[in-house]
Amino acid sequence: MSNELEAFIEYITVTKALSKKSVKAYTSDLLFFEEKLQKPLITTDTFMLLKALESYENKRTLNRKLSAANAFYDFCYKSQYLDEKIKFRLSKIPKLLPKFLSYEAVLQGLELIDRSTWIGLRDYALILFLYASGARISEALEISKNDIEGEWLHIRHAKGEKERIVPLAPVASHAIDAYLNASNFDQDHLWCNYKGSKLSRISAYKITQKYLGVSPHILRHSYATALIRGGADLRVVQELLGHASLLTTQIYTHIQKEDLKNTVTVYHPISKESL
Hints:
With 275 residues, the chain is mainly alpha-helical. It has 2 domains: 3-78; 103-222, Orthogonal Bundle (hpI Integrase, Chain A). It has 13 helices and 3 strands, in the order αααααααβββαααααα. The radius of gyration is 23 Å and the shape is globular.
């Protein structure tokens, strides 16, 4: 690893205070260039850098690596390691509407769960918790019992280390109480497996896949979609989801616009006419 790259990694770790996952991603992408080209990234010309990416066809992968390079070169320019600013143009990727489940679909999945066992009570409570809180699965699995106070949830292990407090629907709180009363495990973490150890990410995926046919993250999208369709303010949804930027939350406005379009198509008489 070159000295400039080491300085950049220290900068995003200490000064920018990015999450460990983000630092690891930047390090991996930038080391890819140095290892591929066998020279410090700061001395690599733009043509050779782009040539190193010619085997990648996925635009999202290309954009991620180019974004990492842009961040590195911007740091080098501001730190006066470079005399000229280098910036790569990213490929345009069409925005896809996030997949989500309707409230009715979530209820149908919940009805499939056998709640006569504590495992069933856990699965029922977990699905309700994810749908009622909008928490990322990584956040949910780090929740401790003490993080729930009445109908409020304190998310301490948030992405980007940004803690937040969100309301939790009473039905989810009651489901969690029923699960905890039946499990009888003396553990700090909220979600556990049959041994009483912390529930794994793959186990959580299997639970939502079994009853709903989707990943846990789709419940986060479903939560946000339900709020937007219900008329919630976009900035409030941003706060509840823990998005650092409103731009990230704005993808859900496409759903709102689609609803408006469908309403006009169905109810306005001129939509049915050919004048």
